[in-house]
Design goal:
By secondary structure, this protein is α/β, with parallel strands linked by helices. Helices cover 41% and strands 18% of the residues. The chain has helices at residues 2-12, 24-36, 55-64, 82-91, 103-111; strands at 17-20, 44-47, 73-77, 93-98, 118-121. It has a 5-stranded parallel sheet, with helices on both faces.
Length: 129
């Protein structure tokens, strides 16, 4: 999943910086630091099911911070439940994409946004067997 999404982004958003975080706490710190340095991320792709903090909670935290609230959020998830979709949109997510993410859907979503240089990506990491 990570490699497929990264190759799609590199292909369509050539020239943008792609950062990853190992959990929601690190992701939030990265978002804050980028905002403090006056180089905020232009987009946050957030996996719904992450270790420690889920994507909805991270989205709520981002939108509650006035320095980060303007960052467009895109949810990656494995469920299409209407209540979850509605909740994500109510939080302020710009889009809700169901896994497996089709390259064309990711492109359509990112194409509607206005980007400059930075992109933030968060994917769930699966334990090694």
């Amino acid at each position: 999943m990570l490699l497929i999404a990264r190759s799609c982004i590199i292909k369509w958003l050539l020239g943008m910086v792609c950062d990853e975080a190992e959990n929601a706490t690190v992701a939030y710190e990265m978002l804050e630091q980028a905002a403090e340095e006056n180089h905020p991320y232009d987009l946050a792709l957030i996996d719904m099911q992450m270790p420690e903090t889920d994507g909805m909670t991270l989205g709520e935290q981002i939108k509650a911070n006035s320095n980060l609230a303007g960052v467009p959020l895109v949810m990656f998830t494995s469920t299409e439940r209407r209540d979850k979709v509605r909740h994500a949109l109510d939080i302020g997510f710009a889009a809700y994409l169901v896994k497996p993410i089709k390259a064309s859907r990711l492109f359509d979503t990112s194409d509607r946004q206005s980007f400059s240089r930075y992109i933030f990506i968060f994917f769930q990491r699966f334990p090694q067997k």
